[in-house]
Amino acid sequence: MRRLRAAVVGAGHVGRQHARIYAGMAAGGVELAAVVDPDLARATEVAGRHGGRALESCEQLDADLDLASVCVPTRLHREVAAPLIERGIAVLVEKPLAARLDEARALAALARTRGVCLQVGHVERFNPALRAARRLALEPRFIEAHRLAPFSFRSADVGVVHDLMIHDLDIVLHLIRSPLREVRAVGGALLSPHEDIASARLEFADGAVANLTASRVSLAPMRRTRVFSRDVFLSLDFGKKYAFLARRPRDFDARLAKQWARIAATPDEELPLIAATAFRGLIEFEELELDDEEPLQAELASFVRAVRTGSPPEVSADEALRALEAAEAVLEQIRSRPW
To answer: What is the CA radius of gyration of the chain?
Structure first.
């Protein structure tokens, strides 16, 4: 198996994690060849810990590089990723794909033209909770998501829609395959020049609806999503990697008739005593078993696999474009109703 040589561009918080994971893939045929950052001291510190050469610019990268993670600020995604793609280097660009739709479309088109793998870092796709949800093959009718975080002073070049809500936009569009028909949203800036809190309602052609809330001015983090389908309710906690399922059983109608008969025979003053057990007698509850693989580890493993085999990336540029288009629709609504 040929060894693949990898680089990490951007040695900030996210880039350090990419470097750590590539360095741990040595047994799987991956070598961390370089860490690139205009702050050479920072690149040197990360490379000293995880391996590879410390470089100040991508122009210094070796010609035989196979793949690279682009972990620079969003406004620089196209500027950094495009020359790498031109050189035939497979690229994983952290989410969102680019700061603007035209830049994202240009990157996607360039990768198609050059025949180069371009994966986008929507890491929640690799969260064990979402993997469990996908195995259920749900047809969602309503999705509710809350993604809240304290202000981190990172990703200050974008607002909360590109910073946090983009995760849930991607998840919703991944679970609901119907065309997006309408977007309504409100939001505003509190601590930065960009929106720090946003709430959006997405309506789809098949009637499905999603309500999303994102904030980066919260006291405590939260990454929870609830999915309602005709027969299944699913609660996902992406932070705790937890998934809980409530499902109507096949004999639901018989169970319902039995419980209503029980209710009818119960005096009103005793109903509170049996209501909970009556409800639990109707529905099947299950805590789903999840694997414990680190989502970023799974994401980079999938990227390496796509590069090695020539298979399509698990999160394609086209999917990332769809999420970014939805984000722009949310931002248009927010701009039309300034606080």
So the answer is: 23
> Which tokens belong to 7?
């680089």
Chain Cα centroid distance, residue 230:
25
CA distance 71 to 84: 13
pLDDT at 19: 98
Residue 243's pLDDT is what? 93
Please state, in angstroms and rounded to a whole number, the distance separating the CA atoms of residues 36 and 50.
13
Asked if 122 and 323 touch (Cβ cutoff 8 Å), the reply is: yes
d(CA 230, CA 211) in angstroms, rounded, equals 18
Domain 4-123+296-312, architecture per CATH: 3-Layer(aba) Sandwich (3.40)
DSSP letter at 13 equals H
Model confidence, pTM: 0.91
For residue 47, the number of C-alpha atoms closer than 13 Å in the C-beta half-sphere is: 22
Q: Tokens for 44, please give them.
A: 């040197």
Please state, as a whole number, how many other Cβ atoms lie within 10 Å of the Cβ of residue 245: 19
Its CATH architecture, for the domain 126-241+324-336, is 2-Layer Sandwich (3.30)
At 196 the pLDDT is 95
Spans in the chain with pLDDT lower than 50: none
Q: What angle in degrees, to the nearest 10, is found between the helix axes of 77-86 and 101-114? A: 10
- Identify which of 6, 2, 1, 27 has the alpha carbon closest to the alpha carbon of residue 117: 6
Q: Which tokens belong to 182?
A: 């309408």
What does the mean pLDDT of the chain come to? 94
What percent of the chain stands above pLDDT 70? 100
Separation CA 236–CA 145 (nearest Å): 9
DSSP string, 136-164: TT---SEEEEEEE----S-STTS-HIIII
- Domain residue limits, the chain: 4-123+296-312, 126-241+324-336, 252-282
